[in-house]
Protein: Enoyl reductase (ER) domain-containing protein
Amino acid sequence: MTGPGSKAGVNRQVMVVRRAKGVPTPDCFQIVDSPVPQCPAGGVLLETLCAAVDPAMRGWLSEERNYMTVSDGEVMRAHGVGRVLESQDERWVPGDLAYGWLGWQRYAAVASSALLWPVDETVAPAPVWLSVLGLNGLTAWIGLNLLGRPVRGETIVVSAAAGGVGGLVGQLAAHRGLRAVGIAGGASKTELARTRLGFHVAVDYKAAAGDLGRELTRLLPDGVDIFFDNTAGPIADAVFPVLNGGARIVQCGTVAVPDWTTLPTGPRRERDILVKRLSWHGLVVFDHMARFEEAFADLKDLYRSGVLTARHDVLRGLDMAPGALGRLYDGTNNGRLMIDVGL
Ligand SMILES: NC(=O)c1ccc[n+]([C@@H]2O[C@H](COP(=O)([O-])OP(=O)(O)OC[C@H]3O[C@@H](n4cnc5c(N)ncnc54)[C@H](OP(=O)(O)O)[C@@H]3O)[C@@H](O)[C@H]2O)c1
Structure:
Protein backbone atom coordinates (compact mmCIF):
# COMPACT_ATOMS: atom_id res chain seq x y z
CA MET A 1 0.00 0.00 0.00
CA THR A 2 1.22 3.50 -0.80
CA GLY A 3 0.98 5.75 2.23
CA PRO A 4 2.32 9.10 3.25
CA GLY A 5 6.08 8.99 3.66
CA SER A 6 6.44 5.66 1.85
CA LYS A 7 8.12 5.15 -1.50
CA ALA A 8 6.01 2.30 -2.83
CA GLY A 9 4.01 2.32 -6.05
CA VAL A 10 4.61 4.16 -9.29
CA ASN A 11 5.55 7.69 -10.13
CA ARG A 12 2.58 9.23 -11.96
CA GLN A 13 3.84 12.15 -14.04
CA VAL A 14 2.15 14.68 -16.31
CA MET A 15 4.40 15.14 -19.34
CA VAL A 16 4.23 17.93 -21.92
CA VAL A 17 3.72 16.41 -25.37
CA ARG A 18 2.75 19.42 -27.50
CA ARG A 19 2.74 23.18 -27.38
CA ALA A 20 -0.30 25.41 -27.31
CA LYS A 21 -1.46 28.45 -29.20
CA GLY A 22 -3.49 30.21 -26.52
CA VAL A 23 -4.74 28.30 -23.50
CA PRO A 24 -3.21 24.79 -23.21
CA THR A 25 -5.77 22.02 -23.78
CA PRO A 26 -5.69 18.51 -22.27
CA ASP A 27 -4.06 17.08 -25.40
CA CYS A 28 -0.91 19.10 -24.62
CA PHE A 29 -0.22 16.60 -21.84
CA GLN A 30 0.18 12.87 -21.37
CA ILE A 31 -0.04 10.99 -18.10
CA VAL A 32 2.76 8.46 -17.68
CA ASP A 33 3.39 5.95 -14.90
CA SER A 34 7.06 5.14 -14.32
CA PRO A 35 9.12 3.62 -11.51
CA VAL A 36 9.74 5.71 -8.41
CA PRO A 37 13.07 7.49 -9.04
CA GLN A 38 16.24 7.20 -6.98
CA CYS A 39 17.38 10.11 -4.84
CA PRO A 40 19.84 12.04 -7.07
CA ALA A 41 23.46 12.50 -5.97
CA GLY A 42 23.58 15.57 -3.73
CA GLY A 43 19.82 16.06 -4.16
CA VAL A 44 16.53 15.15 -2.57
CA LEU A 45 13.68 12.74 -3.28
CA LEU A 46 10.24 14.03 -2.27
CA GLU A 47 6.68 12.86 -2.33
CA THR A 48 4.57 15.70 -3.75
CA LEU A 49 1.56 16.57 -1.62
CA CYS A 50 0.04 19.43 -3.61
CA ALA A 51 1.02 21.22 -6.79
CA ALA A 52 0.12 24.61 -8.20
CA VAL A 53 -1.83 25.47 -11.34
CA ASP A 54 -0.69 28.94 -12.43
CA PRO A 55 -1.63 31.27 -15.31
CA ALA A 56 2.11 31.64 -16.05
CA MET A 57 2.06 28.04 -17.32
CA ARG A 58 0.31 29.22 -20.49
CA GLY A 59 3.47 31.17 -21.39
CA TRP A 60 5.72 28.23 -20.56
CA LEU A 61 3.76 26.05 -23.01
CA SER A 62 3.16 28.57 -25.77
CA GLU A 63 4.42 27.98 -29.32
CA GLU A 64 6.44 31.17 -28.91
CA ARG A 65 9.55 30.54 -26.82
CA ASN A 66 9.13 32.02 -23.35
CA TYR A 67 11.81 32.89 -20.81
CA MET A 68 10.72 29.75 -18.91
CA THR A 69 9.64 27.44 -21.74
CA VAL A 70 8.94 23.80 -20.77
CA SER A 71 10.07 21.52 -23.60
CA ASP A 72 8.11 18.63 -25.07
CA GLY A 73 8.89 15.39 -23.24
CA GLU A 74 9.51 17.14 -19.89
CA VAL A 75 7.41 16.79 -16.76
CA MET A 76 5.19 19.87 -16.47
CA ARG A 77 6.98 22.41 -14.30
CA ALA A 78 5.06 23.55 -11.21
CA HIS A 79 5.55 24.76 -7.71
CA GLY A 80 4.52 22.29 -5.08
CA VAL A 81 4.80 21.25 -1.47
CA GLY A 82 6.42 17.89 -0.82
CA ARG A 83 7.63 15.64 1.95
CA VAL A 84 11.30 14.62 1.89
CA LEU A 85 11.67 10.83 1.62
CA GLU A 86 15.43 10.62 1.08
CA SER A 87 18.13 13.26 1.09
CA GLN A 88 21.76 13.53 0.10
CA ASP A 89 21.86 17.16 1.20
CA GLU A 90 22.49 17.76 4.89
CA ARG A 91 20.03 20.72 4.92
CA TRP A 92 17.10 18.33 4.39
CA VAL A 93 16.17 15.20 6.33
CA PRO A 94 13.40 12.65 5.72
CA GLY A 95 10.08 13.95 7.01
CA ASP A 96 10.84 17.63 6.28
CA LEU A 97 8.31 19.51 4.19
CA ALA A 98 9.59 21.80 1.43
CA TYR A 99 8.22 24.27 -1.12
CA GLY A 100 9.84 24.28 -4.53
CA TRP A 101 9.88 23.29 -8.17
CA LEU A 102 8.47 19.78 -7.82
CA GLY A 103 6.45 19.53 -11.04
CA TRP A 104 3.21 17.76 -11.76
CA GLN A 105 4.39 14.37 -10.51
CA ARG A 106 3.90 12.10 -7.52
CA TYR A 107 7.60 11.78 -6.71
CA ALA A 108 10.16 14.47 -7.43
CA ALA A 109 13.88 13.62 -7.59
CA VAL A 110 15.42 17.09 -7.61
CA ALA A 111 18.64 19.00 -7.10
CA SER A 112 18.45 20.79 -3.77
CA SER A 113 18.47 24.13 -5.66
CA ALA A 114 14.89 23.27 -6.71
CA LEU A 115 13.76 23.56 -3.09
CA LEU A 116 13.03 27.20 -2.27
CA TRP A 117 12.08 27.21 1.40
CA PRO A 118 10.98 24.92 4.24
CA VAL A 119 7.30 24.47 5.05
CA ASP A 120 6.25 24.58 8.66
CA GLU A 121 2.95 22.83 9.27
CA THR A 122 2.74 24.31 12.76
CA VAL A 123 2.18 27.68 11.05
CA ALA A 124 -0.28 26.47 8.39
CA PRO A 125 -1.24 23.26 6.58
CA ALA A 126 0.61 22.38 3.36
CA PRO A 127 -1.93 23.84 0.85
CA VAL A 128 -1.72 27.28 2.51
CA TRP A 129 1.97 27.33 1.51
CA LEU A 130 0.76 27.41 -2.10
CA SER A 131 -1.63 30.30 -1.47
CA VAL A 132 -1.31 32.85 1.36
CA LEU A 133 2.22 31.70 2.23
CA GLY A 134 3.22 30.85 -1.35
CA LEU A 135 3.45 32.56 -4.70
CA ASN A 136 0.00 34.19 -4.43
CA GLY A 137 0.69 35.82 -1.07
CA LEU A 138 4.17 36.99 -2.03
CA THR A 139 2.90 38.42 -5.32
CA ALA A 140 0.05 40.28 -3.62
CA TRP A 141 2.29 41.60 -0.81
CA ILE A 142 5.20 42.68 -3.07
CA GLY A 143 2.93 44.17 -5.74
CA LEU A 144 0.84 46.13 -3.28
CA ASN A 145 3.49 47.30 -0.85
CA LEU A 146 6.59 47.77 -3.00
CA LEU A 147 5.13 48.77 -6.36
CA GLY A 148 1.71 50.12 -5.34
CA ARG A 149 3.23 52.29 -2.56
CA PRO A 150 -0.13 52.58 -0.77
CA VAL A 151 -1.12 55.47 1.47
CA ARG A 152 -3.95 55.01 3.97
CA GLY A 153 -7.23 56.36 2.57
CA GLU A 154 -6.29 55.88 -1.10
CA THR A 155 -8.41 53.91 -3.56
CA ILE A 156 -7.15 50.75 -5.23
CA VAL A 157 -8.79 48.86 -8.10
CA VAL A 158 -7.96 45.17 -8.53
CA SER A 159 -8.83 43.05 -11.59
CA ALA A 160 -9.44 39.27 -11.26
CA ALA A 161 -10.39 40.34 -7.74
CA ALA A 162 -11.85 36.99 -6.63
CA GLY A 163 -8.81 34.99 -7.77
CA GLY A 164 -5.87 33.62 -5.83
CA VAL A 165 -3.74 36.77 -6.07
CA GLY A 166 -6.56 39.33 -6.40
CA GLY A 167 -8.39 38.06 -3.32
CA LEU A 168 -5.27 38.50 -1.21
CA VAL A 169 -4.62 42.00 -2.59
CA GLY A 170 -8.16 42.95 -1.49
CA GLN A 171 -7.61 41.62 2.04
CA LEU A 172 -4.18 43.24 2.38
CA ALA A 173 -5.46 46.56 0.99
CA ALA A 174 -8.40 46.67 3.40
CA HIS A 175 -6.04 45.89 6.27
CA ARG A 176 -3.82 48.81 5.20
CA GLY A 177 -6.76 51.23 5.27
CA LEU A 178 -7.30 51.52 1.52
CA ARG A 179 -10.66 51.71 -0.18
CA ALA A 180 -10.56 48.54 -2.31
CA VAL A 181 -12.62 48.12 -5.46
CA GLY A 182 -12.66 44.69 -7.10
CA ILE A 183 -13.51 43.73 -10.67
CA ALA A 184 -14.54 40.11 -11.18
CA GLY A 185 -16.70 37.99 -13.46
CA GLY A 186 -20.20 37.04 -12.28
CA ALA A 187 -22.51 37.73 -9.37
CA SER A 188 -21.16 35.05 -7.04
CA LYS A 189 -17.55 36.24 -7.43
CA THR A 190 -18.43 39.90 -6.85
CA GLU A 191 -20.48 38.89 -3.79
CA LEU A 192 -17.51 36.90 -2.49
CA ALA A 193 -15.17 39.82 -3.15
CA ARG A 194 -17.42 42.15 -1.10
CA THR A 195 -18.19 39.81 1.76
CA ARG A 196 -14.96 37.83 2.23
CA LEU A 197 -12.09 39.41 0.36
CA GLY A 198 -11.90 42.93 1.75
CA PHE A 199 -13.40 44.82 -1.17
CA HIS A 200 -15.67 47.74 -0.34
CA VAL A 201 -17.18 47.63 -3.82
CA ALA A 202 -17.09 44.91 -6.46
CA VAL A 203 -18.05 45.27 -10.11
CA ASP A 204 -19.13 42.42 -12.38
CA TYR A 205 -17.29 43.12 -15.63
CA LYS A 206 -19.30 40.49 -17.49
CA ALA A 207 -22.64 42.10 -16.60
CA ALA A 208 -21.27 45.60 -17.28
CA ALA A 209 -19.83 44.49 -20.65
CA GLY A 210 -19.15 47.60 -22.78
CA ASP A 211 -20.39 49.88 -19.98
CA LEU A 212 -17.63 49.02 -17.50
CA GLY A 213 -15.92 52.40 -18.02
CA ARG A 214 -19.15 54.28 -17.35
CA GLU A 215 -19.85 52.15 -14.28
CA LEU A 216 -16.38 52.87 -12.86
CA THR A 217 -16.77 56.60 -13.49
CA ARG A 218 -20.09 56.51 -11.62
CA LEU A 219 -18.73 54.49 -8.69
CA LEU A 220 -15.42 56.29 -8.38
CA PRO A 221 -15.99 60.06 -8.55
CA ASP A 222 -12.73 60.62 -6.63
CA GLY A 223 -10.72 58.45 -8.97
CA VAL A 224 -8.19 55.66 -8.41
CA ASP A 225 -4.69 55.85 -6.93
CA ILE A 226 -3.48 52.27 -7.46
CA PHE A 227 -4.48 49.82 -10.19
CA PHE A 228 -3.42 46.24 -9.45
CA ASP A 229 -3.97 44.70 -12.86
CA ASN A 230 -4.14 40.95 -13.32
CA THR A 231 -5.91 40.94 -16.68
CA ALA A 232 -4.92 43.78 -19.07
CA GLY A 233 -7.33 43.97 -22.06
CA PRO A 234 -10.76 45.61 -21.94
CA ILE A 235 -10.81 45.86 -18.12
CA ALA A 236 -7.59 47.87 -18.11
CA ASP A 237 -8.93 50.02 -20.94
CA ALA A 238 -11.90 50.89 -18.71
CA VAL A 239 -9.78 51.67 -15.63
CA PHE A 240 -7.25 54.03 -17.25
CA PRO A 241 -9.62 57.00 -17.61
CA VAL A 242 -10.42 56.99 -13.87
CA LEU A 243 -6.78 56.97 -12.71
CA ASN A 244 -5.78 60.00 -10.65
CA GLY A 245 -2.64 62.07 -11.16
CA GLY A 246 0.35 60.19 -9.74
CA ALA A 247 -1.47 56.84 -9.81
CA ARG A 248 0.57 53.63 -9.72
CA ILE A 249 -0.25 50.71 -12.04
CA VAL A 250 1.03 47.31 -10.93
CA GLN A 251 1.06 45.08 -14.02
CA CYS A 252 0.84 41.70 -12.35
CA GLY A 253 -0.69 39.64 -15.16
CA THR A 254 -2.37 39.69 -18.54
CA VAL A 255 -4.87 36.82 -18.43
CA ALA A 256 -7.36 38.59 -20.72
CA VAL A 257 -4.95 38.66 -23.66
CA PRO A 258 -5.15 35.29 -25.39
CA ASP A 259 -2.02 35.60 -27.48
CA TRP A 260 0.87 38.07 -27.80
CA THR A 261 2.18 36.84 -31.16
CA THR A 262 -0.12 39.38 -32.79
CA LEU A 263 -0.08 42.51 -30.65
CA PRO A 264 -3.55 43.37 -29.38
CA THR A 265 -4.89 46.77 -30.34
CA GLY A 266 -6.64 49.22 -28.04
CA PRO A 267 -6.55 52.81 -26.80
CA ARG A 268 -3.09 54.45 -26.69
CA ARG A 269 -2.33 55.66 -23.15
CA GLU A 270 0.98 57.52 -23.56
CA ARG A 271 -0.79 60.87 -23.13
CA ASP A 272 -2.39 59.73 -19.83
CA ILE A 273 1.00 58.53 -18.61
CA LEU A 274 2.58 61.87 -19.43
CA VAL A 275 -0.12 64.26 -18.27
CA LYS A 276 -1.13 62.35 -15.13
CA ARG A 277 2.47 61.37 -14.25
CA LEU A 278 1.43 57.72 -13.98
CA SER A 279 3.91 55.03 -12.94
CA TRP A 280 3.44 51.67 -14.69
CA HIS A 281 5.45 48.85 -13.08
CA GLY A 282 5.92 45.32 -14.38
CA LEU A 283 5.89 42.80 -11.53
CA VAL A 284 7.90 39.58 -11.61
CA VAL A 285 7.76 38.39 -8.06
CA PHE A 286 11.09 36.53 -8.09
CA ASP A 287 12.89 39.82 -8.83
CA HIS A 288 12.11 40.74 -5.21
CA MET A 289 13.54 37.75 -3.33
CA ALA A 290 15.53 40.08 -1.09
CA ARG A 291 12.20 41.16 0.43
CA PHE A 292 10.66 37.67 0.78
CA GLU A 293 11.67 37.24 4.43
CA GLU A 294 9.93 40.47 5.40
CA ALA A 295 6.90 39.54 3.28
CA PHE A 296 6.72 36.04 4.83
CA ALA A 297 6.92 37.43 8.37
CA ASP A 298 4.02 39.79 7.70
CA LEU A 299 1.95 37.21 5.78
CA LYS A 300 2.40 34.64 8.58
CA ASP A 301 1.30 37.15 11.23
CA LEU A 302 -1.72 38.18 9.18
CA TYR A 303 -2.66 34.55 8.50
CA ARG A 304 -2.27 33.51 12.15
CA SER A 305 -4.32 36.47 13.36
CA GLY A 306 -7.13 35.72 10.87
CA VAL A 307 -6.70 38.90 8.82
CA LEU A 308 -5.90 36.82 5.74
CA THR A 309 -7.99 33.82 4.83
CA ALA A 310 -6.96 31.15 2.33
CA ARG A 311 -9.37 30.15 -0.44
CA HIS A 312 -8.46 27.01 -2.32
CA ASP A 313 -9.95 25.29 -5.35
CA VAL A 314 -8.52 21.78 -5.11
CA LEU A 315 -8.52 19.26 -7.97
CA ARG A 316 -8.28 15.70 -6.69
CA GLY A 317 -5.41 13.79 -8.27
CA LEU A 318 -2.95 14.28 -11.13
CA ASP A 319 -5.48 12.88 -13.63
CA MET A 320 -7.21 16.28 -13.32
CA ALA A 321 -4.05 18.18 -14.28
CA PRO A 322 -4.34 18.17 -18.10
CA GLY A 323 -7.67 20.05 -18.00
CA ALA A 324 -6.72 22.35 -15.14
CA LEU A 325 -5.33 25.38 -16.99
CA GLY A 326 -8.56 25.96 -18.91
CA ARG A 327 -10.31 26.68 -15.60
CA LEU A 328 -8.14 29.76 -15.00
CA TYR A 329 -9.21 31.21 -18.34
CA ASP A 330 -12.93 30.40 -18.33
CA GLY A 331 -13.11 31.65 -14.73
CA THR A 332 -14.48 28.40 -13.27
CA ASN A 333 -11.71 28.35 -10.66
CA ASN A 334 -12.78 29.62 -7.29
CA GLY A 335 -9.69 30.64 -5.36
CA ARG A 336 -6.12 29.36 -5.56
CA LEU A 337 -6.20 26.48 -8.06
CA MET A 338 -4.08 23.49 -7.05
CA ILE A 339 -3.87 19.72 -7.40
CA ASP A 340 -4.00 17.37 -4.45
CA VAL A 341 -1.32 15.01 -5.72
CA GLY A 342 -1.39 12.53 -2.86
CA LEU A 343 -4.27 10.54 -4.31
N1 LIG B 1 3.87 38.81 -11.92
C1 LIG B 1 4.07 37.78 -11.12
O1 LIG B 1 5.16 37.55 -10.60
C2 LIG B 1 2.90 36.88 -10.87
C3 LIG B 1 2.95 35.83 -9.95
C4 LIG B 1 1.79 35.07 -9.75
C5 LIG B 1 0.64 35.37 -10.47
N2 LIG B 1 0.65 36.39 -11.38
C6 LIG B 1 -0.54 36.77 -12.15
O2 LIG B 1 -1.59 37.04 -11.24
C7 LIG B 1 -2.82 36.87 -11.93
C8 LIG B 1 -3.75 36.04 -11.07
O3 LIG B 1 -3.20 34.73 -10.94
P1 LIG B 1 -3.92 33.64 -10.03
O4 LIG B 1 -3.02 32.47 -9.99
O5 LIG B 1 -4.36 34.27 -8.77
O6 LIG B 1 -5.18 33.26 -10.92
P2 LIG B 1 -6.71 33.52 -10.55
O7 LIG B 1 -6.92 34.99 -10.46
O8 LIG B 1 -7.10 32.67 -9.40
O9 LIG B 1 -7.42 32.94 -11.84
C9 LIG B 1 -7.42 33.65 -13.04
C10 LIG B 1 -8.69 34.51 -13.11
O10 LIG B 1 -8.56 35.42 -14.19
C11 LIG B 1 -9.83 35.82 -14.61
N3 LIG B 1 -9.87 35.86 -16.07
C12 LIG B 1 -9.56 34.85 -16.93
N4 LIG B 1 -9.74 35.25 -18.20
C13 LIG B 1 -10.18 36.54 -18.14
C14 LIG B 1 -10.55 37.51 -19.12
N5 LIG B 1 -10.52 37.24 -20.43
N6 LIG B 1 -10.94 38.74 -18.69
C15 LIG B 1 -10.99 39.04 -17.37
N7 LIG B 1 -10.66 38.16 -16.39
C16 LIG B 1 -10.26 36.93 -16.78
C17 LIG B 1 -10.84 34.79 -14.08
O11 LIG B 1 -11.60 35.46 -13.07
P3 LIG B 1 -13.11 35.96 -13.37
O12 LIG B 1 -13.97 34.74 -13.18
O13 LIG B 1 -13.32 37.03 -12.37
O14 LIG B 1 -13.13 36.42 -14.80
C18 LIG B 1 -9.95 33.72 -13.44
O15 LIG B 1 -10.53 33.14 -12.30
C19 LIG B 1 -2.48 36.24 -13.27
O16 LIG B 1 -2.47 37.24 -14.26
C20 LIG B 1 -1.08 35.71 -13.06
O17 LIG B 1 -0.36 35.61 -14.26
C21 LIG B 1 1.75 37.14 -11.58
Q: What stands out?
A: Residues 10-130+310-340 form a domain with the Quinone Oxidoreductase; Chain A, domain 1 fold (CATH 3.90.180.10). Residues 54-56, 135-136, 139, 160, 162-166, 184-185, 189, 230-231, 233, 235, 252-253, 255-256, 283-285, 328-329, 331, 333 surround NAP (CB under 6 Å).
